[in-house]
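--- STAGE predict ---
source: upstream dedup step, 1 unique chain passed
mode: sequence only
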Amino acid sequence: EERLVEFGGGLVQPGGSLRLSCAVSGYTNSRFCMAWFRRAPGKEREGVATVDSEGTTSYKDFVKGRFTISVDNAENTLYLQMNSLKPEDTAMYYCAAKGEYCSGPNRLNFWGQGTQVTVSS
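--- STAGE serialize ---
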């Protein structure tokens, strides 16, 4: 059974950094798309960044130049390095995955439980 578990959230001051981790277990497909999403209070869930098994990455404009998504295949872990954090980055962050490239037709079908990130002075 595939399982995703996020770690690394917390409280950070504006301008600070955090690194989120998403530990993946039970996933055997060598082809994948993995993503980070977030949901701020009172707002819809939104995508943040994606990476696939070819190493192709994409970012939403509001995090470009500040966030970096990466995957360590040996450790079965997805990361999101977040720098220059802003109060508007405050949200619950979720990782998600599917067994095809990100450009494929299917939805992400494996989700973690989320980790809270709060950016405040």
